[in-house]
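target protein:
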Amino acid sequence: MPDNTKTSQPNTPAANKRNAQNDVITIDLVQLFYELRRHIALLILTTVIGGGLGFVISRFVLTPTYTSTSMIYVMSKETTLTSLADLQISSQLTQDYKVLVTSRTVMEDVIQKLGLKYDYATLRRKVTLDNPSNTRILNISVLDTDPKMAKQLTDAVADSASSYIADIMEQDPPKIIEYGEIPLQKTGPKTGRNTMMAALLFLLAAVAFVTIDMLTNDTIKTEDDIENYFGLPVLAAIPEKDAAAKRSEQYNYAANPKSRNRNVKKGAKR
């Protein structure tokens, strides 16, 4: 007859703990702290290497960019400075100007004037508009790898936008307060920020490596590991001889030939 008996697992706290550990991976933060401290040299070295790579790439590999900015004054001929409604009208005009300045018509006009070889979408990505709070001034900034071209682009965008806005809104063209200047300092890349970000990324990668190595290493090192892995209590432990005492004993044995000879004679008598 077939044996219908079933082997039941012991319902003990240790067995339940082992089953739970098979499903959930727990991280001992204290153990992780000591593990990271044990690998502190690796973490420092990795951080330095990451920061160095970030600095070198940002300083010598990436192409520097420059920004030139021109300003136009948002004011229609009907607008005065006598009421709150006039200020609200100017604020609304500023939002309209932002849309018109980056319109396809303006971008294509700039491309045609300067004889550029890229399309209007590429030029639009170079243009940044900013309206300082509580003002009717619109800043038109253009980013380019050539500082002279950045100035030419922002000036051309300001001129084309002023003419186009006057034509569309049937009003006097917005006043150009000032044209852009040839930038002397680069806008990007930001070497300091890139260095810090690269160092942080390498540090996080090193911490992740140490953490994964700690979690996947199932070598038994302490009495707690035996209880955690097998659910068995430790009844006794044989202490390891102190390393300093062991070295001292070896040194005395090597330095005292008489004691060494006595040990040899004792062995011979036996």
Observations:
- The beta strands are 66-73, 127-130, 137-144, 175-178.
- The longest strand covers residues 66-73.
- Confidence is low (pLDDT under 50) at residues 4-10, 264-269.
